[in-house]
């Protein structure tokens, strides 16, 4: 006996889970989505995600299909160029710099950047009254019993749910993945990433900047103005001890170190939010499916924060799952096999590429740094290679 009957239960109401719920409901499925945590009201709220996401063109198309993009677009900043800089030493000395432009692929922008806490709050607001969506914050997945025709799920609040398909969108420590007995391969780098937002003197001109140096990449991504000042989101990767040292600095000392790290391309910088820290890993689930269960987003894969691949890869999972279950019993072996076929190869290839790229970016070896600098110049200066790399970074959504 169940308390609730639904077509699809989604464990995890982060950005990926909410986008998935919106898309599946738009496709006509009854969706129950649950999460122990509630969306933050602002950037300073406890647990707010201070990272940002550059939603690339393919991801925007998925959100337009789910009828949620109009709610997000006013809070997003277009990315009209990508500047990549390589450097060595401290203070960093620039060894190469190149600009990548969307016009090379016939696009006006590479994507649209938005703070993650803001995106989650807006999506939760939209889905609160969305037809076909039963949105439950404050409760999460506790256990499952999979049968031939359905999965019986118990939530942490005690509610029992009968669903035809369960989707784990519940993060890198996914309770759904654990309940299914699916292991994951994990590569650790001894790095930590610091995420925060800043205001700065010079305009960003809608240009995202990735700066490579020993310890890892530092990325500044344009945001809408903050209290009348130019603003950007920052993810700064370092070897673990260095990241901990930086996070413990007084604000003015931290801001001075940051300006040095990005080689003053935005002028003086001031913290606009707190600093969040998390370990950098590559993690890939051994399987994407179990009996009447599918894994998406960070339950399926985690990548270092380079090249806007993380959440955009997750949105590719969402689109593929929606396509795989269309016109089928959503938890059938055929539907789940179709989803796995659509995503396993891309996830494996993308995670390997980002893993290698991060190892090269963070290397302290001078020969590796020299190769990195030469590679950056070639990636821009050889036109067919530049276009191929840009198409790959966009997920193959442009010709």
UniProtKB/TrEMBL annotation:
Organism domain of life: Bacteria
Gene Ontology process terms (BP): ubiquinone biosynthetic process
Sections of the chain in a coiled coil: none
Keyword Phosphoprotein: no
Domain FAD-binding positions: 5-343
UniProt pathway: Cofactor biosynthesis; ubiquinone biosynthesis
Keywords, alphabetical: FAD, Flavoprotein, Monooxygenase, Oxidoreductase
Cofactor or coenzyme needed: FAD
Molecular function as annotated in GO: FAD binding; monooxygenase activity; oxidoreductase activity, acting on paired donors, with incorporation or reduction of molecular oxygen
One Pfam family recorded for the sequence: FAD_binding_3
Protein family per UniProt: Belongs to the UbiH/COQ6 family.
PANTHER family, alphabetized: UBIQUINONE BIOSYNTHESIS MONOOXYGENASE COQ6, MITOCHONDRIAL
Protein name: UbiH/UbiF family hydroxylase
Organism: Palleronia sediminis
